[in-house]
Amino acid sequence: xxxxxAIVEDDAQxxxxxxxxxxxxxxxxxxxxxxxxxxxxxxxxxxDLAILDIALNADVGGGxxxxxxxxxxxxxxxxxxxxxxxxxxxxxxxxxxGAWDYQTKPISLEYLIVRIESFFTIxxxxxxxxxxxxxDDLKINKKSMQxxxxxxxxxxxxxxxxxxxxxxxxxEAVSIDDLIKATKQGVVEDNTIxxxxxxxxxxxxxxxxxxxxxxxxxxxxxxxxxx
Length: 227
What we know:
This protein is of the alpha/beta class. The chain contains eight helices and twelve strands.
């Protein structure tokens, strides 16, 4: 039996559709149709990954609250929003809450399985890494996935953390294609990388309004440069 995946979805037919496919890949699947039932279960035992719809019956933002709860318990726990709400603001808000991914329905089962497997690969590769990076203002611990800027912790999602490490490891600018590879997430759109970098910058600027170390190399990618 592989890892445990929680599906929080109020539509029983859709929930069963995803659950059956995941069980066919030997994942243990637990199902919930409401925010409260999910959080009650998670208070006793966290899943290894969660797939969330946003609207849960009359609870229009229930999935957001489940994501918030999971991120507070373990920010390295992969959360995927799978929803019919395709508005860009919904996507941005979901990622800001700590979700690893945001997909709009319908989505192919094959693609969903690939995304899930890639997220578990990220968790495993991060756990094996114990390197630390330290500079005057920046401190990184890969093992704990912690980032500190001027002694204040920057709460990055695992995908954001992977992108930051790729920028820090490179002496020159890093292409969008290489940043996509760094996420270890298979198929990723260029705009998704741009959105992640935007969120990283905002999180640093929240701590330091003068932060400008992530430079855009137009038509190519990004570079870490604090000069």
